[in-house]
Amino acid sequence: MYIMTKERALAQMRALTATQALATLVGWQSDPATRLLLRPPFSEWFYAASADLLLVPSIEPTRGDLAIVDRGMREARCDALVVKASSEGRRTLYIAYGQWGRQQNVWCHGRRLWLSPRGDAWLVPDPHDSEDPHLSMQLTEHRLQVASHPPARDDQEAIDGLDRADAFLAQIWGDR
Looking at the record's lineage, which domain of life comes first (predicted)? Predict the structure, then answer.
């Protein structure tokens, strides 16, 4: 159990607003009826029906905390994105993607939000920490699929997309 501090409450608010902004950006609609179907602690998560995806705002997505999300995925039989707002250094999002499977869920950690000049959203490897540096996914209204190629053609374009995403988040959080 955590003691609610001012910093912790602020981190929770950033994670929640970032998750909602990401859903709006991509066009995911949260289905309120699903809250009735999922039992606590899963009932506070967002469910995007068109993507068959649980959106989980988090401030502590450690491997142990992901076990709880894993259980929620098993119960809902769908994929999940765990969205963590950074608490130190540059303000950004760190995202873990869990793909539901009949036998076991498969996790991909170390993803960051990347935006194209047109505003297309992708999950790309964090250049500083990623277990699979080649796995990217375009975020659309539909189920997530691994892309056959990354969205950026070179290192500068990759950096620019991460910077655009961070600027988008700064606007959401009022950081400018």
Answer: Bacteria
Contacts for 48 with CB less than 8 Å, ≥ 6 apart: 23, 28, 29, 30, 31, 54, 55
Across 151-166, b (16+ Cβ under 10 Å) vs e yields bbeeeeebebbbebbb
Indicate the number of domains in the chain: 1
pLDDT digits (tens, 9 = 90+) for 78-128: 999 999 988 676 788 999 999 999 999 999 888 999 999 999 999 999 988
Give the domain extent around 21.
Answer: 6-173
Element (H, E) at 90: none
The token pair that represents 18 in the structure block: 């970032």
159 φ, ψ (degrees, to nearest 5) = -65, -45
